[in-house]
Amino acid sequence: GITQTSANLSWTASTDNVGVTGYDIRVNGTLNGSTAGTTYALSGLTAGTTYAVSVTAKDAAGNFSSASSINVTTLAACSNVTLSLTLDNYPEETSWTIKNSSGATVASGAYNSTQDGITITSTNCLVTGCYTFTINDAYGDGICCAYGNGSYTLRDASGTTLASGGSFGSSMAHNFCVGGAVLSGEQSVSVSEHED
After folding, report:
1. Could you tell me which residues are beta bridge partners of residue 51?
2. pTM of the full predicted structure?
């Protein structure tokens, strides 16, 4: 597998008339290490970076095969955000999303068969960037305070509150950034579609 700082490589064994004794692994043209087996773990890599990796077989006579090459891209750096959500007496009405700046949903939750009034915690690792957290109530009366004392708090890894509340209509949206990204102008939007 590939992580932010490592990659596990594996390949099919080479054959040779003299006998393969091992493999050299190069990263961006520089020897990273050697192994007698057909697996190798790269470590100390930088998050969100593409590396040219090659494997060359060698035999007992000192001969080398041509290199087999691939590009390995490590996962981008990410920051944990944790949502603490206390549901009201109608949890089946509650849902939420976190969308990236392109509008793609990167995390979400809905609570159709969840016990009333419980607190749910969800932690998600988000790559550097700006996002919109939106909490929804299908009935249009928020999660506080007519039918229970629901609330939500979204925090970053250092405990800084990114969004919080409970009283809203059909939905409440909060914009936030992680990993040093900056919003051009922070805003919160409340939309109510509840009819009397």
Report:
1. 72
2. 0.65
What single-letter DSSP state applies at residue 185?
S
Whole-angstrom Cα Rg for the chain: 25
Alpha-carbon span 120 to 40, nearest angstrom: 40
Phi/psi at 38 (5° precision): -110, 25
C-alpha distance across the termini of the chain, in Å: 54
CA-closest candidate to residue 157, choices 127, 178, 187 = 178
Q: Which pLDDT score is estimated for 114? A: 81
The C-alpha atoms of residue 8 and residue 119 are separated, in whole angstroms, by: 38
Residue 187 confidence class, pLDDT cut points 50, 70, 90: very low
Contact 88, 116 (CB under 8 A): yes
Confidence (pLDDT) at 195? 41
Provide the CA 78 distance to its chain's centre, in angstroms: 6
Cα torsion 31, 36, 37, 43: sign: negative
Q: How far is CA 126 from the centre of its chain?
A: 5
Dihedrals φ, ψ of 39, to 5°? -135, 155
- Is a pLDDT exceeding 70 seen at residue 185? no
What is the average per-residue pLDDT within 87-101? 96
**Measured on CA atoms in the order 132, 135, 141, 144, is the torsion positive or negative?**
negative
Please tell me whether residue 25 adopts helix, strand or coil conformation. Answer: strand
